[in-house]
From TrEMBL:
PROSITE patterns: DM10, NDPK, NDPK_LIKE
InterPro entries, per the entry: DM10_dom, DM10_NDK7, NDK-like_dom, NDK-like_dom_sf, NDPK7, NDPk7B, Nucleoside_diP_kinase, Nucleoside_diP_kinase_AS
Short name of one Pfam family: PH_NDK7_N
A single Gene Ontology CC term: axonemal microtubule
Native organism: Ceratopteris richardii (Triangle waterfern)
Catalytic activity: a 2'-deoxyribonucleoside 5'-diphosphate + ATP = a 2'-deoxyribonucleoside 5'-triphosphate + ADP; a ribonucleoside 5'-diphosphate + ATP = a ribonucleoside 5'-triphosphate + ADP
Keywords: ATP-binding, Cell projection, Cytoplasm, Cytoskeleton, Hydrolase, Kinase, Nucleotide-binding, Transferase
Listed name of the protein: Nucleoside diphosphate kinase
Active-site residues (renumbered): H210 (pros-phosphohistidine intermediate), H359 (pros-phosphohistidine intermediate)
């Protein structure tokens, strides 16, 4: 089949959808036309068009990578594989994944580092803050065991929080290593002053970030951090409030700027990229059901793509941060917020009442509950839709 269509290309993917009502798993072919950003879907079982070709300017080709979850007419679709050879050949290199780690000395600058990741064209596919034990650090860096710096390196890696990420881009492995710069931060400042290690690293051991050196190590290192969801879990679940950087800001690549602003006033004590199914989002917002007229639109936005959740604590770790963090975010409607509280997060980053940049916990007694909801659960949107339905049927 000719895959060229006018000026653009047609890319094909195999996607699945779990119908939360019937428990049936549906398999579709999804076609994406770059020319007009339109999508068409074909029902494989019944051999017929399921969705006529229609433009979806909110969905970009780079959002369609293997394992991605996209929301289309309230259906959560998971991309399982490429649908044809043309798509595989053209997208595989473009969609290379590498593993990145912000080391303990880089954490205070993690907002700026994440901003550089986005502004250099990477997408973040997975992200989780964690705390390594010395034993974890020894395992992660076992290829360096016996070297003179091994002891100091592993002690340093276990001395504070880290942020693990899977980054997607064309030639991601090489490009991330280039953006990091030389291993020794002092050399980096001489030879590549705009590199991440030059800007945020300290010396030859404390160099702000790690990057995989090959596709094989990227896979291994990503599995090390992400296979066991509870690995290095760091949420405190006390004296905390929840902040969610909503999907529209993650799509727009400005999450790093938001994190940087938050860090100026508060501590971030846990962080994770999460994708909600519609039922997850409805459960999370349950207290607003029947109270806020925009409930369904809010659920739809929260389930529209990956978001970044943060557990926020006061800098001294004491006291309840819920109300001070709400002040920092501003009133819920971003348009009104720009008039009455122009220096708040929602005034700066929100668009309207629904796409208002961030969610923050409302009630002082709910900070811990909302953090538990996020950091104590596993949200595979595919599995969860099924669990949710089972739960509701019991
Ligand atoms: N390292 C060190 N002293 C050295 C070389 C490396 O402490 O002389 C640390 C540094 O944190 C580095 C890590 O060990 O990032 C892994 O070393 P590698 O040679 O793999 O450098 P990288 O791949 O991180 O650039
Ligand atoms: Mg290395």
């Amino acid at each position: 089949m000719d895959t060229r269509t006018g000026e653009g290309c047609r890319f094909a993917f195999n996607v699945r959808w779990l119908d939360p009502n019937t428990h049936l798993i549906w398999h579709y072919q999804l076609f994406y036309y770059t020319h007009d950003q339109s999508i068409e879907m074909f029902d494989i079982k019944n051999q017929r068009i399921f969705l006529k070709r229609v433009s979806h300017p909110e969905i970009h080709l780079e959002h369609l990578y293997l394992g991605a979850s996209i929301s289309l007419y309230s259906r959560q679709l998971i991309i399982e594989s490429y649908g044809d050879e043309f798509s595989r050949k053209h997208l595989q290199g473009f969609q290379e994944t590498t593993f990145a780690l912000i080391k303990p000395d880089g954490i205070k600058n993690m907002g700026r580092i994440i901003d550089l990741i986005f502004s250099n064209g990477f997408l973040i596919k997975e992200l989780r803050m964690c705390k390594l034990s010395v034993e974890d650090a020894r395992n992660f860096y076992k290829i360096h065991s016996g070297k003179p710096f091994y002891e100091a390196l592993t002690q340093f890696m276990a001395s504070g929080l880290c942020v693990a990420m899977d980054l997607v881009a064309e030639n991601a492995v090489r490009r991330w290593r280039t953006l990091l710069g030389p291993t020794n931060s002092q050399d980096a400042r001489d030879r590549d002053p705009n590199s991440i290690r030059a800007l945020f690293g300290t010396d030859s051991t404390q160099n702000a970030c790690h990057g995989s050196d090959s596709l094989e190590s990227a896979k291994q290192e990503s599995d090390f951090f992400f296979r066991d969801r509870n690995f290095g879990s760091c949420a405190r679940l006390e004296n905390c409030t929840l902040c969610i950087i909503k999907p529209h800001l993650v799509f727009d690549g400005v999450a790093g700027q938001v994190i940087d602003l938050v860090l100026k006033k508060f501590d971030v004590t846990a962080m994770e990229m999460v994708t909600f199914s519609q039922p997850n989002a409805a459960e999370f917002y349950e207290i607003y059901k029947g109270v806020l007229p925009d409930f369904h639109a809010m659920v739809h936005e929260l389930a529209s793509g990956p978001f970044i959740a943060m557990e926020i604590s006061n800098k001294d770790g004491q006291g309840n941060p819920v109300s001070s963090f709400r002040e920092f975010c501003g009133p819920p409607d971003s348009q009104a917020c720009r008039i009455v509280r122009p220096n708040t997060l929602r005034a700066k980053y929100g668009i309207n009442k629904i796409k208002n940049g961030v969610h923050c916990t409302d009630l002082p007694e709910d900070g811990v509950l909302e953090c538990k909801f996020i950091f104590k659960h596993s949200f595979n949107p595919f599995v969860d839709a099924m669990e949710y339905t089972n739960h509701n049927l019991r």
